[in-house]
Amino acid sequence: MIKVDNTKRYNQLAIELLKRIFNGYYKLGARLPSTRELAKQASVNPNTMQRALQVLQDEKILIKQSTTGRYVTIDIQYLIKIRNDILEQINHIYQDEISSYGNNLKNLDINSSDM
Question: Cα–Cα distance between 105 and 61 in angstroms, integer?
Fold first, then answer.
């Protein structure tokens, strides 16, 4: 599963490509530009982009044709599931962050001389 809170650059690139798919920049069944072209667009090393593309291939979001390149899956139901999984991850991350600020300010000892 793709982790949205992963700090590795290739994972961040995979998420950015996935957002482009979700937003229709890359259509279902569309051929993606070459690894070199995508790397150039993102200003990263082609090896880093290759790893990002591999993440999406491993998740079956991209399908690699050995002679013609990589294509976006045409399975919209699968993409909806991936999107929902990612949104759930984001929800948990933000709920944890919100909880870290505490929820009971009555426990604070406020000394008026400190104000």
Answer: 45
Q: Are the CB atoms for 13 and 48 separated by under 8 Å?
A: yes
CA-CA distances (angstroms) from residue 97 to 89, 101, 105? 12, 7, 16
Domain locations in the chain as residue ranges: 9-101
Structure confidence at residue 66 (pLDDT): 87
Q: Rounded distance, CA 28 to CA 22, Å?
A: 9
Q: Does domain 9-101 have CATH number 1.10.3860.10?
A: no
Full DSSP string of 55-104: HHHHTTSEEEETTTEEEE---HHHHHHHHHHHHHHHHHHHHHHHHTT-S-
CA-based Rg of the chain, rounded to a whole angstrom? 20
Whether the full predicted model's pTM is greater than 0.85, yes or no, is: no
